[in-house]
Amino acid sequence: MTHGISFGEAVKVWARIAALSFGGPAGQIAVMHRILVDEKRWIGERRFLHALNFCMLLPGPEAQQLATYIGWLLHGVRGGLVAGFLFVLPGALAILALSYIYVLYGNAGPVEALFFGLKAAVLAIVAQAVVRISGRALKFNAARALAAVAFVAIFAFALPFPVIVFAAAMIGWFAGRRGSAAFGGGGHGGDADGLVDADSALGDGPITHSPARTRRAAIVLTGLWLAPVTLIALLAPQSVWNEIAIFFSKLAVVTFGGAYAVLAYVAQQGVEQFGWLSAKEMLDGLGLAETTPGPLIMVTQFVGFLAAFRQSTGLPPLLAGTLGALLTSWVTFLPCFVWIFAGAPFVERLRENRALSSALGAITAAVVGVILNLALWFALHFLFAKLEPVRTGPLNFDLPVAGSLDPTALALSVVAAAMLFAIRRSVFETLAVCAVAGLALKAVI
């Protein structure tokens, strides 16, 4: 390819994206879009959204898979491997270090205060992502209506995410077949605002990486994923290592539904079935994952750490915990590369298929509603100490108790929003200011 982007330059950019990948999938996708589309102009708006739509269909963390996909578009298999690996690395190291602190020192006051400030920044980052993605993806009334329906379905009725995705795909598919461009099914061109594909470094032509080589990489990675799982099952079938390897491998295959849906299942199984940790510890782990870079699903590493730490089977507990954390991340994230490399060549060939593009565009519209739900979920749990469940007929949601509003959390969230929206400071600056503010506020309150 002749896009002129050196592999070394791409590695630096992926490392930068990884360091700024706070805020869960919505914030991470927004960071990637700002850097890769708006700033570097490496990939056009339509190709970026096409890649995002594909990743939304896969099990696993969509932001990490989006990085892997775009890395593959730029530099083939090695580009995908580096982009995906760097996206996970900072979060994995941060969660591992914080897991040590957690088991050795418990809930240290300064650490808790630091996380409090970071959560305010994360809330603003997610809100910014909703605004950015909706502004670019919802260009027609049909798309806006679909996003609204998806939001109501998941927020008010707790409809499963896969059902929403399937329904949106069907709506988009039939719309595309009828010639409608309401969901971006018009093929080449620019009904999407932003950088036109033809003006980007990648251009709008076909990607010429070898499909055979890409699929061979998927086969090799499948073997690397399953080899330790098989070995542990043969040598230690009754051990915590086997429980971790099988459970999280299974999770990597069936984790449709977004991070929060996945984490609800992890919490249920980890707490109630395996007894690896308590419900409070699961919430603490979620707090760690929400305020460190990388995929939110990185909380699984914290769960694996505690599971092995407490059932160390003769090893020093910290060593056992470290091995448990590494095993969990291995079987959680390696399959993500398999899905991308197995499907990317096929999806790229269908990029100009009107019906498929319309189906993927409809999924993006629905996902905007889902991201809005995630933003609201995070806001409610951060700003209010108490929520009241509403369970009437098909309705299934939580409402905040007004008297439980945390004024400190609200004030810091307003500051974070002002930095991002009003004075347009960077994500990194916003995180830094809120972290310091959190420490200062907790010291005087």
Principal-axes geometry comes out as globular
- The beta-strand count equals 2
Low-pLDDT runs? 186-191
Structural class: mainly alpha
Proportion of residues in β-strands: under 5%
The neighbouring-strand order within the major sheet is 1-2
List strands and helices in order, with pairings.
Layout: H1 7-19, H2 24-39, H3 45-56, H4 62-105, H5 109-137, H6 141-156, H7 161-177, H8 211-235, H9 240-254, H10 258-273, H11 279-290, H12 299-310, H13 317-349, H14 354-383, E1 387-392, E2 395-400, H15 407-422, H16 427-444
Antiparallel strand pairs: 1-2
Give an account of the 3D structure.
By secondary structure, the protein is mostly helical. It has a domain at 7-210 and 340-444. 73% of the residues lie in helices and 3% in strands. The protein has 16 helices and 2 strands. A two-stranded antiparallel sheet has the order 1-2. A hairpin with a 2-residue loop joins strand 1 (387-392) and strand 2. The longest helix is centred in the first third of the chain and has 44 residues, at 62-105. The protein starts with 6 loop residues before the first helix and ends with a helix. The model is unreliable at 186-191 (pLDDT under 50).
